[in-house]
Specification:
The complex is a heterodimer.
Chain A lengths: L3 E4 L2 E4 L5 E7 L5 E7 L5 E9 L2 E4 L6 E3 L9 E3 L8 E8 L8 E2 L3 E5 L1
Parallel strand pairs in A: 2-11
Antiparallel strand pairs in A: 1-3, 3-8, 4-5, 4-9, 5-6, 7-8, 9-10, 9-11
Chain B lengths: L2 E3 L4 E5 L4 E3 L2 E3 L5 E8 L6 E7 L7 E2 L2 E6 L4 E6 L8 E9 L4 E3 L3 E6 L1
Parallel strand pairs in B: 2-12
Antiparallel strand pairs in B: 1-4, 3-9, 5-6, 5-10, 7-8, 8-9, 10-11, 10-12
The chains are: A mainly beta, B mainly beta.
């Protein structure tokens, strides 16, 4: 049963703490992506990776970090430098190439107080 | 960098009628893909339809069709015979040769009985 998993579904943290969001896929996709979505807004690209051990910044990378040590995994760390980390975070993966759609995980709702 | 614009924050349509959701884009890449996704209140992202920049014909998938006007850089989604279950957020997205995928701000569609 192929797909993308994100855990946990809900995450609560205190201000000043780093937190890592998990994203795993078993679709054999080369490309993986992280997006942030604020209430009633669109998806904003944080980071993306086209291949293992390589990743690029998106539009709002400040305060976030990623790693891509395995094809299946693309964890996102929300650091204490991120000023407004409370949001819905979506991970996606796809085959490389302009003609392939992204497959999305169920998302993680992060609340920082 | 590419840009996606959705100018309709909200749209209403009567059940069984057709509705058009607008999307314009901007890119300097000759090769790109255009996508539409649906996001119900549950938060999941559902892929609806794809159009390639070199495709001569407009894409269709069941009740969904994409009105692609390359010279105008528009890729409007047409939903025919609207159903109550079509009420959701709809996002237009573009994938460039560089591999990144960016989304518009979205349109909230409400289908009235």
């Amino acid at each position: 049963d192929g797909g993308i998993t994100q855990s946990p579904k809900y995450l609560f943290r205190k201000e000043g703490q780093n937190v890592t969001l998990s994203c795993e896929q078993n679709l054999n996709h080369d490309a993986m992506y992280w997006y942030r979505q604020d209430p009633g807004q669109g998806l904003r690209l944080i980071y993306y990776s086209q291949i293992v051990n390589d990743f690029q910044k998106g539009d709002i990378a400040e305060g976030y970090s990623v790693s891509r040590e395995k094809k299946e995994s693309f964890p996102l760390t929300v650091t204490s430098a991120q000023k407004n980390p409370t949001a819905f975070y979506l991970c996606a993966s796809s085959t490389r190439g302009v003609g392939y759609e992204q497959y999305f995980g169920p998302g993680t709702r992060l609340t920082v107080t | 960098a590419q840009k996606i614009t959705q100018t309709q924050p909200g749209m209403f349509v009567q059940e069984k009628e057709a509705v058009t959701l607008d999307c314009t884009y901007d890119t300097s890449d000759p090769s790109y893909g255009l996508f539409w996704y649906k996001q119900p209140s549950s938060g999941e992202m559902i892929f609806l339809i794809y159009q390639g920049s070199y495709d001569q014909q407009n894409a269709t998938e069941g009740r969904y069709s994409l009105n692609f006007q390359k010279a105008r850089k528009s890729a409007n989604l047409v939903i025919s015979a609207s159903q109550l279950g079509d009420s959701a957020m709809y996002f237009c997205a573009m994938r460039a040769y560089s591999g990144d995928m960016r989304f518009g701000a979205g349109t909230r569609l409400t289908v009235k009985p």
